[in-house]
Design goal:
heterodimer, A: about 350 residues, alpha+beta, 22 strands, about 30% strand, elongated, B: about 450 residues, eight-stranded mixed β-sheet, about 55% helix, globular
Chain lengths: ~350, ~450
């Protein structure tokens, strides 16, 4: 076992961050079917440890981008899981699609091969009429499969899996035991870019909460605040408002007012108890505890008008968003933001 | 005792009854009836025909059952020899009702069963409801990509069936425990091609109309089918619940498209030489129309199908040299009692009223009372044989003739319209199929 102290660990993480930057700012998984994990992160010929990337993502220096979901065998954790359609009855994978034909005239329904193919069309074995044009005198009633093991036919085959590593066969409710693993690409975040410019990770105690040089909370920190507020609201029936701030950069390249000044102007408008954090590159979220909807809407208008009036050159819109209850925060926030973006 | 009092002491009453049943009184009554019949009184003939055709067979069946209670019951299979039964259900928008249907089949106690539900392009959640049973491995669902009509969907399910026997069941029906055993028992006889189940009303207590239908199903369904099947003259295998030998039904290509799938299938099975049976103890519960317009629509459809299928498509069924004397008897019975007898009865009653104009009220009242009395008798017989209708339905017997008169009138109108080919299209058949099928 190798024991590393905190400093060397930070240096390793910074080194991983540099590797990601050198790989055009994004490192994607490379598929390695023969390996145990099924994928690896490689930048400029050098393998990057996934745990380092994950640590950087947790400290907001890297952004995760979803790439793929890998299924693993519940017995041996191998990714060599062969998923295929199986018969609903005998679970055999020997299922084949069978084209059915329905003859309007006599109502006969059978696999297409029963209708003998002749020069002018297919011949119905029941009424001996000719099936000429699909849709006018016959049609396909729907998709259909047949099992060659048990002779059962059905419309929707079941899903089954066999592990090519340990030989476990899974079907029915066993499929729920399959392990799923999300595979991500990692991209240098704004904080990561700032860290690269500064030459070290922002992991000092005074840097853990806010973004480097910006008066806003880190994404992960803000999300934690938001989750806490949501729980508090549910538990004590208190209210809170959430504002989405969308920022567009100025069209004029010579503008000297930077994003930090804009955000400082926004923060000035907020109360001390309010919190503002980053959602992504151009979206910020403002959490306004104990504020009712009407007041929040007023604040949104004021923010959009006065801040823009002060700075004139940036485009900033502010709108209220609702978080649906019940769903996990990440999902409900994503759905709300999508809706808000569409509304905007 | 007051001279006009109807109260009699017990000895007097016994004396009166014995006098009424004395050979001289009975002999006198028989002589009177003989005189009436030989004089060509069509009203008397109407009455005699009605009793002979509808009441006497029910009475004979009842007597046979009294003497030998096992006469109409078939011993069930040994559990080891049970054949696989494919229960075939076709439906369009049955909704949550399909769950009850499937569950009743799975809970029917029959161990070797599979359910095939062919959905006719439902617009509700019927497919989802039915698919929720697929995990059991005993249910398979086929959702048609477009509206095809019931016969096509039955054919789809039939094509998927693996059972030696196929039980065609309505999507709004429930199977009573043990029914599949009782139906399957008949197929021990290789000559039997299909067996009709005994259909009872699930919504019998919904309103007066459904209670009257309950009486009708017991009298004209259960009891009539019982004696007719005994004579090999079963007129119909109800589409709501009948079991077939799968090979037999496949041999004739399944159901034909168009109307009257059950009547058509019955005659085609008979033409193939199969024997058809009726299982009194195999009980199926279905919902029937609870409003008069709905009921009239249903009976109109049946009546038009009768003309289309029996009188046109299968008109050769009357030929005794082709299909035997039973087919002729069936066809003649159908033509006579569905078409001619109602006309004959109307004429007979009108003539009677014309000849004895001053006694109109007496004639009609006595006729009505006689019919009600016979209906009561048949209700008692049906109750004794099949446990339906319940005895409290006897109170509805006075209404029963009026209910039948209403339906007969509607049926006659439908028959005449179909004979004249007035508005023959039926929305149950999709137009693209209607334009392709032969119109009998």
């Amino acid at each position: 076992m190798t024991i590393t102290n905190g400093q060397s660990q930070t240096a390793d993480l910074f080194s991983a961050l540099v590797s990601v930057r050198d790989a055009s700012g994004t490192v994607s998984p490379r598929w390695t079917p023969d390996g145990d994990t099924a994928y690896a992160y490689v930048a400029n010929g050098r393998r990057i440890d996934e745990s380092a990337l994950e640590s950087l993502a947790q400290s907001d220096h890297l952004d995760r981008v979803f790439v793929e979901r890998i299924s693993r065998c519940p017995s041996c954790q191998s990714h060599l899981l062969n998923m295929r359609e199986v018969c609903a009855g005998c679970k055999s994978p020997r299922v084949y699609p069978v084209e059915l034909l329905h003859h309007y005239r006599c109502g006969y329904v059978a696999p297409a091969y029963e209708f003998e193919l002749e020069r002018d069309g297919r011949r119905c074995p029941k009424c001996h009429g000719v099936l000429r044009d699909r849709g006018t005198d016959h049609d396909v009633p729907g998709p259909h499969f047949a099992c060659q093991s048990c002779n059962r036919s059905f419309q929707v085959p079941e899903l089954g899996a066999v592990c090519l590593s340990c030989g476990s066969v899974l079907s029915g409710t066993d499929l729920e035991k399959i392990l799923f693993e999300d595979v991500w690409a990692y991209r240098v975040s704004l904080l990561g870019a700032a860290a690269l410019r500064a030459g070290s990770l922002h992991v000092a105690d005074n840097e853990r909460l806010t973004e480097y040089d910006l008066p806003i909370l880190r994404r992960s920190v803000f999300m934690q605040y938001l989750e806490d507020e949501r729980r508090r609201s549910k538990r004590f029936h208190t209210r809170f408002a959430l504002l989405l701030l969308t920022v567009s950069p100025p069209a004029d390249d010579f503008v000297v007012v930077d994003e930090a000044a804009l955000l400082a102007a926004v923060v000035e408008q907020l109360a001390e108890t309010d919190k503002i954090g980053r959602y992504d590159e151009r979206h910020y979220l403002a959490l306004l505890p104990s504020l009712d909807t009407r007041s929040a809407e007023k604040l949104a208008k004021r923010l959009a008008s006065s801040t823009v009036a002060a700075l004139r050159l940036w485009n900033l819109t502010a709108q209220m968003i609702d978080l649906p209850e019940g769903a996990p925060l990440g999902e409900s926030l994503h759905a709300s933001l999508l809706r808000a973006t569409v509304d905007a | 005792m007051h001279p006009y009092s109807v109260r009699r002491s017990m000895p007097e009453l016994l004396q009166f009854v014995s006098a009424s049943l004395s050979p001289s009184v009975v002999g006198e009554a028989v002589a009177n009836w003989r005189e009436l019949l030989f004089s060509g009184d069509i009203f008397a003939w109407f009455f005699v025909i009605m009793v002979l055709r509808f009441d006497l067979p029910a009475f004979i069946v009842w007597v046979i059952n009294l003497i030998n209670p096992r006469a109409f019951r078939v011993p069930v299979y040994d559990e080891r020899d049970l054949p696989l039964i494919s229960v075939i259900v076709a439906g369009r928008n049955p909704g949550a009702g399909i769950r009850k249907t499937i569950r009743s089949v799975l809970d029917s106690g029959y161990p070797r069963v599979e359910v095939l539900y062919a959905d006719d392009y439902s617009t509700d959640d019927s497919v989802v409801q039915a698919r929720s049973f697929e995990k059991t491995g005993l249910v398979r669902v086929f959702a048609s990509a477009q509206h095809n009509g019931k016969p096509t969907n039955l054919n789809i399910a039939l094509m998927m069936a693996r059972g030696e026997l196929s039980f065609v069941l309505d999507a709004d029906a429930e199977v009573e425990y043990g029914t599949l055993h009782r139906l399957a028992a008949y197929f021990g006889d290789e000559r039997i091609g299909a067996v009709a189940a005994n259909i009872l009303l699930r919504n019998n207590s919904q309103n007066l109309l459904t209670r009257l239908q309950e009486i009708e199903y017991a009298l004209n369904g259960s009891i009539a089918r019982l004696w007719r099947a005994g004579l090999g003259l079963l007129p119909i295998l109800p589409g709501a619940a009948s079991m077939f030998r799968t090979a037999a039904i496949r041999e004739i290509g399944g159901y034909d498209t168009g109307l009257g799938d059950d009547t058509d299938m019955t005659i085609r099975m008979l033409k193939q030489g199969w024997r058809l049976e009726f299982a009194l103890e195999a009980r199926i519960w279905t919902d029937q129309p609870s409003t008069i317009p709905h009921l009239i629509r249903q009976r109109t459809r049946w009546a038009r199908n009768m003309v289309k299928v029996r009188l046109r498509k299968h008109k050769d069924f009357i030929n005794p040299f082709k299909y035997g004397w039973k087919s002729t008897l069936l066809a003649v019975d159908n033509i006579f009692f569905r078409l001619l007898f109602p006309l004959y009865a109307t004429v007979a009653i009108l003539l009677r009223l014309g000849f004895y104009g001053s006694d109109k009220a007496v004639i009609l009242t006595s006729l009505y009372c006689l019919i009600v009395a016979f209906a009561c008798g048949r209700i008692l017989i049906a109750n004794d044989l099949s446990r339906t209708p319940p005895l409290y339905d006897l109170f509805l017997a006075p209404l029963y003739p009026l209910y039948r008169l209403m339906l007969r009138t509607a049926e006659m109108i439908a028959i005449v319209r179909e004979l004249l080919r007035i508005r023959t299209y039926h929305p149950y058949v999709p137009k693209r199929i209607w334009s392709e099928i032969p119109h009998w």
